[in-house]
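## retry 2 of 3
previous attempt timed out at serialization; input unchanged, resubmitting
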Amino acid sequence: MLNQNLRTAILELHRKGVPHRQIARALRISRGAVKKVIRSESMVPPAVLRPEKAEPYRQEILELFTSCRGNLVRVHEELLHLGAHLSYPALTAFCRRHRIGHQPVEPAGQYLFEPAVESQHDTSPHKAKMAGRQRPVQTASAVPCYSHMLFFQFYPTFQRFDCKVFLTETAQYFGGSYKVVMVDNTHVIVLRGTGKNMVPVPEMAAFAERYGFEFQAHEVGDANRSGRVERPFAFIENNFLAGREFADWNDLNNQARAWCDQVNAGYKKHIRAVPKELFAVERPLLKPLPIWVPEVYRLHHRIVDVEGYVSVNTNRYSVPFEWIGHQVEVRETKDRIEIQYGIRQSVAHTRVIDPIGQRITLREHRPIRGHGIKRSDPRPEEKTLRALVPETAAYIDALKTRGRTYLTLALRQLLRMAREYSRDAFLSALQEAARYGMYDLDRLERMILRRIASDYFRFEDNDH
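## retry succeeded, writing output
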């Protein structure tokens, strides 16, 4: 069928007196087609009134479409069973033309952003080959909406601590903050609500206030609103992670940062520009970083175990053995584990990122072999016992060196006997035990009981 432009050309040439044959040669169409157009004297192509083969079965198609759950293959099979002479392409074309099972295509739009107004942040799970094996990783990415600069890092998990670490590094990488950070409706940042009604977690809201930006969330189902940051995830998976192997987390993130520098300096077809050059325009408009950027940390409170270690994320870090049994404050930063006891005493370890139950020991935290804890001051039980019964001093000194029981327990038992039994019986049994070198306190107590038996358990003879 000839379109409107050809029909207009034929009629114009015919009015000028050009013969039919010459018109056909010039327009490369048949003379019969030229004659039909001249006879119709219309530039508008005639409407096609050919009946559709599927039209007689419209009601059956609508019913079968519902019962077959939208599967047109099954609809076609059932129509053939009903005796319809209809091909599968004719059925699908009929359904498309009459919007059966096909939603109308909505026109696509675009979001226009001014420089330094908004950046988008999101995460996505990937797999990276690390130390010879595939490891699941969480990819955190940030993209400014105007310049399309790309920055991403990898983490084993992505909690609020990791989110604050990443956003801090993002602000340092870009050299400033944007007015808005667009996120999806993630529980890491969102306390309640969605979209415009989203209320961030107070912890994250305070963090955003420090850098002068605010969190916003896109409406549920409006994934195009965060398209700037969604698009690079496939690029990261199929380009950066493909064919690369990494030694550890630090190597992975260092290579990611270097790759971002390389990609941001290249030309991008979809924006017809170089992201680094666009970023030069918005860089002076960013909100400057605070004068002092505090290091992000996660606070823990722990009791030092009997082996002299503190556990953080299943990994155990050594502390001085003098801290055993005491409560300490642990600050977990991106690279370090800082353990503080009191105000002035603290130790630091390199943080192990993976929760693998590893034990990290510093040599200076372990006592020299043969040099255990030596108490310079007497125990409270010893002080009380010497004050209560001064005659026990020699026995206590010998008990310290020759006793087999744990000294604190032995002193408590000796103090109890001095308080419960008579002084004469106690001192008499103690002198005899010292004379024979006996420091078994259970036997000493039995000796005291034999001495006081006649005083407390006297039996009178009955004359019956």
